[in-house]
Design goal:
With 226 residues, this protein is of the alpha+beta class. It is built from 9 helices and 4 strands. This is Glutathione S-transferase family protein.
Length: 226
């Protein structure tokens, strides 16, 4: 089989999601990063100008969910999706929630918190010239804060935001108090999608200790480091 190349922003939770899928399926791959102003080249890989994009034996697959389905078809074991229809539906609902809702909590915690932002910008520009960090550091907060306001979560006060965020974590804690994984008796795409978002939050957020204070959640995150 030809080499698998993951074209990524290394700090992206969606790219982390694909890396976790590749690792779970024990597939060898290499990464191509588009940090800093290299992000301008992404439009040549993706019509949506977004990453991840997976290069696989001459095929180019965009979007983390589409990549997950593609890899499941090519490498069905170990399985990402439960065979039981109800559990599969639950797993896909978790994945969609992680991608479309939990993601915005991750963005808020990176771009609405000055201390987190100081950690985020160097990661966005890792391996690139210093002047690119100045450019990205000036533009990225403006862009993402506008997106957060348009989405709605960026209009919340910090206290209200944190209350909603920890309410979500408390719900995950309840689920994990009754079963070892989010959607099934085994690890599925649900666990990978949610963990990818939370791991990126933990990477830069000042709330790390409070997040890991949930014992079931903390144990589950440890098990996700397979």
């Amino acid at each position: 089989m030809s080499k698998i190349v993951l074209h990524q922003w290394e700090i992206s939770p969606f790219c982390r999601k694909v890396r976790k899928i590749l690792q779970y399926k024990k597939l060898n791959y290499v990464t191509q990063n588009y940090n800093g102003l290299l992000a301008l080249k992404v439009s040549k890989l993706s019509k949506a100008a977004k990453l991840p994009v997976l290069e696989y034996a001459g095929e180019w697959i965009q979007d983390s969910s589409d990549i997950a389905e593609f890899l499941e078809h090519r490498h069905p074991q170990p399985a990402l999706f439960p065979s039981d229809p109800q559990q599969q539906a639950q797993a896909l609902l978790w994945e969609d929630w992680a991608d479309e809702s939990l993601y915005w909590y991750e963005v808020y915690l990176r771009f609405m918190d000055q201390r987190a932002l100081q950690l985020t910008i160097p990661l966005l520009c890792a391996g690139r010239p210093q002047f690119e960090a100045w450019i990205i550091g000036s533009l990225a907060p403006i862009i993402y804060r506008q997106q957060l306001r348009s989405q709605g979560i960026g209009r919340l006060s910090r206290d209200r935001f944190e209350a909603k965020f920890f309410q979500q974590l408390a719900r995950i804690e309840v689920v994990l108090s009754h079963q070892p994984w989010l959607a099934s008796h085994e690890l599925t795409i649900a666990d990978i999608a949610v963990a990818a978002q939370l791991e990126e939050i933990l990477r830069t957020s000042t709330l790390k200790e409070r997040i890991l204070a949930y014992p079931k959640l903390a144990n589950w995150l440890t098990r996700m480091n397979y």
